[in-house]
């Protein structure tokens, strides 16, 4: 079975007993009241989901199994001579709930490498799309084509016992994570590099190999990919990509179906597509100003113009966070260490000084601070990955780690079909009138 899978089973049995006990003894406890406004406004602030892998604090930002991003950068295993955490380690932490050893991380690297073969029909499905199709469209088509490989779907069709759901979901999660870098790199090389594909290097770690297959063998870029894959992996359960994956999975859809659904949510401009929108916004500001480094005043004018056109400032604001996103800070630290002289990076930092007070003055923006997407594009451009339409695919490959670890937990804990109640506005009016 593999020792990580066995370890997961032990942890899952323990937690299952605790959850059963909680529901049996405290099932009628009220967590909070729900207001009418919350129901209309995106269910913001309603505690309605359980996600084991990470927890978001409005001021402190994300913690993965209790560990903050700075702690993970320090404590998770790294490649020899490297300084950034390996995503394999984060996946282990989210799945098992404990920090991994170097050997655990090596085991996962080897496991993913051994499962990374992508069948030819997946590439053929992607090739059936015009090259002009958005990379996220090509990505979800690739994931959907890969669904033929789902062991969960196959076992379910043959009459699987409920008790085994978690086991086949685990296998699908491992297989899918192992194969995603190959699919994503294929799309990148197909769309931007005349279809000149690069064979995987099985000596490299998961993120290092992804960088290699994209065509960036520079050690700095590999380090960036390791950090990028860690910080984008999970953001508790209510965000659109995580919630969608969880919701679709609750219908016992397999990992491929559920993840593809989540990725269609990530492709929205208020969620993962914001990373391409940020760099587009910065580049068009620079172009409009005739190139070079803008002044703070020029940035301020451009921000006001964006707002006056009824648009949002991409990369700023958050549904839950109320401070600068630690994922932004981690990227800023990476940039200070490796590329402090980069002009685009300096613009990102000047935008950071300029935007928050303007958004604050609007009086309605709950969080004027930058989120993860405000910084990532400038780092990628520095290393030559300038094709910003591809950025959300990078986010998606990383997000697989969190949402698929969670999906495995969902099946291990026997979570129910998700089916909240909805009402009509007529119902609301009658409710308000006390009828
Ligand atoms: N620029 C301009 N206006 C903004 C804004 C921004 N960056 N952020 C919020 N606002 C506006 C909202 O549009 C809303 O206006 P309205 O009342 O006229 O409709 C008002 O402020 C209140 O919104 P708020 O409650 O603060 O924010 P929400 O929880 O509704 O939305 C997002 C959160 C992230 C969607 C919002 O801040 C936004 O659109 N930001 C820009 C896009 C972005 O960066 N998205 C990435 C988010 C994240 F990191 C990710 O998921 O990847």
UniProtKB/TrEMBL annotation:
One of its GO terms (molecular function) is citrate synthase activity. One of its GO terms (biological process) is citrate metabolic process. Pathway: Carbohydrate metabolism; tricarboxylic acid cycle; isocitrate from oxaloacetate: step 1/2. The keyword Acyltransferase applies. The keyword Coiled coil does not apply. Pfam families: Citrate_synt. Coiled coil: none annotated. It is an enzyme of class 2 (transferase). It comes from the Bacteria. Keywords: Acyltransferase, Transferase. Its EC number is 2.3.3.16. Belongs to the citrate synthase family. This is citrate synthase (unknown stereospecificity). It comes from Chitinophaga tropicalis.
């Amino acid at each position: 079975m593999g020792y990580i899978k066995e370890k997961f089973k032990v942890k899952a049995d323990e937690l299952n007993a605790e959850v059963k006990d909680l529901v049996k003894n405290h099932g009628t406890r009220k967590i909070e009241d729900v207001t009418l406004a919350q129901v209309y406004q995106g269910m913001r602030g309603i505690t309605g989901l359980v996600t084991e892998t990470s927890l978001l604090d409005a001021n402190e930002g994300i913690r993965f199994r209790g560990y903050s991003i700075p702690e993970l950068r320090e404590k998770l295993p790294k490649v020899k001579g490297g300084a950034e955490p390996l995503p394999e380690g984060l996946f282990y932490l989210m799945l098992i709930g404990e920090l991994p050893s170097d050997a655990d991380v090596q085991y996962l690297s080897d496991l993913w490498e051994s499962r990374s073969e992508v069948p030819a029909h997946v590439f053929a499905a992607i090739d059936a799309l015009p090259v002009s199709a958005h990379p996220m469209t090509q990505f979800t088509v690739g994931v959907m084509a890969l669904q033929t490989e789902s062991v969960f779907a196959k076992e379910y069709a043959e009459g699987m016992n409920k008790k085994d759901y978690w086991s086949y979901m685990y296998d699908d999660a491992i297989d899918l994570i192992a194969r995603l870098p190959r699919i994503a790199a294929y799309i990148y090389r197909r769309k931007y590099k005349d279809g000149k594909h690069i064979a995987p290097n099985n000596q490299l770690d998961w993120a290092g190999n992804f960088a290699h297959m994209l065509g960036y063998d520079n050690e700095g870029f590999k380090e960036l990919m390791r950090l990028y894959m860690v910080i984008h992996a999970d953001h508790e359960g209510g965000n659109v990509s995580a919630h969608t994956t969880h919701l679709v999975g609750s219908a016992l859809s397999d990992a491929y179906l559920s993840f593809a659904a989540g990725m269609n949510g990530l492709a929205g401009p208020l969620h993962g597509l914001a990373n391409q929108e940020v760099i587009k916004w910065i580049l068009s500001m620079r172009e409009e100003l005739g190139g070079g480094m803008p002044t703070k005043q020029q940035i301020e004018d451009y921000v006001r113009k964006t707002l006056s056109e009824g648009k949002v400032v991409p990369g700023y604001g958050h549904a839950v966070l109320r401070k600068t996103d630690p994922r932004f800070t981690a990227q800023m630290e990476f940039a200070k260490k490796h590329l402090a002289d980069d002009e685009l990076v300096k613009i990102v930092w000047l935008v950071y000084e300029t935007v928050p007070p303007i958004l604050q003055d609007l009086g309605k923006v709950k969080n004027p601070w930058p989120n993860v997407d405000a910084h990532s594009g400038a780092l990628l451009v520095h290393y030559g990955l300038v094709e910003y339409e591809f950025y959300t695919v990078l986010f998606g490959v990383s997000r697989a780690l969190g949402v698929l670890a969670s999906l495995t937990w969902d099946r291990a804990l026997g979570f129910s079909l998700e089916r909240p109640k909805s009402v009509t506005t007529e119902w609301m009016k009658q409710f308000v009138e006390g009828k």
